[in-house]
Batch of 3 targets.
Target 1
Amino acid sequence: MRSRFEQQLSRLHEDMIAMGDLCEEAIAEAVRALLSANREAAKQVVRGDREVDRMEREIEELCLRLLLQQQPVASDLRHISAALKMITDMERIGDQAADIAEITRHFRLPEDPASERHITKMADAVKSMVDESIDAFVHEDAAKARAVLAADDAVDRLFFKLRRDIIDMISQNPAGGEEAVDLLMVAKYLERIGDHAENIAEWALFTVTGKRPDDAQEAPPEEKGNV
């Protein structure tokens, strides 16, 4: 029985990695399409989001089978419940990559090399966060999960820097306001992808520590102390 469970758990890991790869590819292709104004490539990203959705359903079904047909111990139960939470964030990452691609279909990139660099840096950073957070889950690596949490701060700084640049861009060229706002939306989608990767890392940490992500918000009564 345990051998069968281990095989299914291994498949869960493989599927999680595959879904993560799809998300990373979607981010890369969406930003590449944006920067090259490749509308056909953008359409491919939007169509590809269906595959991310399909994998979410498959992994959810596998997790439910593991819960119902097997007898997971506490640590296994944490692992499976974390996976169920993580695929929701991964599905949202796919959606937001598709949102970037949708903008590409009517977007003209402002002639601003700095903005292009910031978008590229943000995309590279969030792709790395997605990859590292899933790897932390599969290998139950608490240190790697915490590194992803720290990396989100760098993504936020890039977002705020780009936002300031866009405000300056609009003040200097009000006629280009529509393109600037679209660029800000792209940056916001990337920032949200970073937040979802952070959520995944928090659930990866939960599999190791047993502490839910929201446990840090409010300490249990015995840890608060009494006056």
Target 2
Amino acid sequence: MFEWGKTLTETLATVHQHGIVHHDIKPQNLLLTGEGRLKIADFGVANRNWGTRIYMAPELSLGEAVASDDVRIDVYALGVTLLELLLGKNPLRDIADNDLLQAKIRHDFIPHNLARWIQEILLKATHPTPELRFQSMKDFGEAIESRHVSYIIDGDRMKAQRIAAKARILLARKKWRTVEKYCQQALHIAPDCVAALIVAGRLELMLKRTARAKAYFFDAVRINPRATVQKELGWIALEEGNFAQAISMLTDHLQRDAADFEACNLLLQ
């Protein structure tokens, strides 16, 4: 099955080189000739930001500005397609339409009983954040061929993480100016450092600058949908007078951390 995957990544890499993104990769659009050759059919929606919902990358349903020639759209669809071919069914097919997007963002539909290398590859191919997927079909194909997802040790990100950790400690001591300086420094080194985004957001929240805080938290969730910022978003909802949303967010956070007294006090408010 993954031999087909390698063939498909090579074919799509060639297509992408010509500025064409298929946008509707799915098993129904894969054809096997009498000679046993695999072909990709139906380029009718190429370079248009739509396709078949269960194979569509989540960013296409989030209202984000997505370039129609972003090859990571096909990377996502091919990941879901290979999973379906491997299992004989698509685990996303039985999910109600209004729950489908959240299922993609939770990113928990890859079975744990698959070989570890297959799990690694499919998890990367179907990551809800485009920046954390394979960035090209060439990368996808190389991972299939080597049966391994290459890990990159990013020195800049490690340095930014250390600075963010210092800023988090100083935030508890209300050293606002130093915290702001450290956050700016960390994000200059690594703009996608989630820890720095969260600390920067909390600083803005404590300074009552909710719009700026919200922007930082949304960036953190965009980069890592599992970032734990429910308490902070509940705090913002409280500041904005959206009490129903505040209660929902804070209750969700307290289910994970019942001893968080700060969240308890916000909920009581």
Target 3
Amino acid sequence: MTQLLPSSFLFRYNFPVKYAGGLPRRGAKLLGLAREFALPNLGSLDDRPAICEVRLVWNERGLGIGLSVRGSTRATHDGPPRAEDRQFQIWIDTRTTPNAHRASRYCHHFGLFPQGGGTTGTKPLVRQYAIARAREEAPRCDLADIQLAAQVEKSGYELEAWFPIATLHGFDPETNPRLGFYYQFTDDLLGEQFLAMAGEFPFGNDPSQWATLELVQ
């Protein structure tokens, strides 16, 4: 019998996010997170292989996200790297509302890129997007406040981002230690990976489909 819905759609997800007080660091490694900070690969519920690993951390100053990708990084085009070839999109709700189907002013959508920034196109890059059908839009943050670091090698790439409190409207771990969260990773060579359900579901504008993060110490 054919299964009408993917297995990953049948559950609500709640993940603990560990605390680390000394972050972000200075230099090439903003976070340097160990595997104990990684989210599980929920795609395995639907027999989708993992092509990246996502790691999360928090403290009173903000939220950190790390992406680790293993696989070919050869160029597929002439000229400088194109940001759109490798994008890590994240959705964050600082006042998680798991039953709301439309985004509020606390819902944020960012795109992170290991390359595409700077004058040569080789620096990491971040963009902020509007969320379709939102009841209210999140305030636009100063993207220069978001710290980025990336290492691109023949065997893959690492991307780290630190979001200070000022860049996440409503972020208050003391009174609201639960966040809504979702991600979509896209690589022109390796394919796509999602936190849970794949692209046929409207997770991009429906916060009820996002997972819950528990900020723990």
